[in-house]
Amino acid sequence: MSLETGSTEPFAAALRLYESEGFRPSDPFAGYPDTPFTRFLSLKL
User: Which pLDDT tens digit goes with each residue over 20-33?
Assistant: First the structure.
């Protein structure tokens, strides 16, 4: 399972939640651009 989210302070709580559930940094996917303001995470199911 992959997700894209923001990387700025308003997204900090969401990033902590995703990481606490096992999501790990990953490469961009599905045509999303890799920018300084995005984070890509994945979780093996």
Answer: 999 999 999 999 99
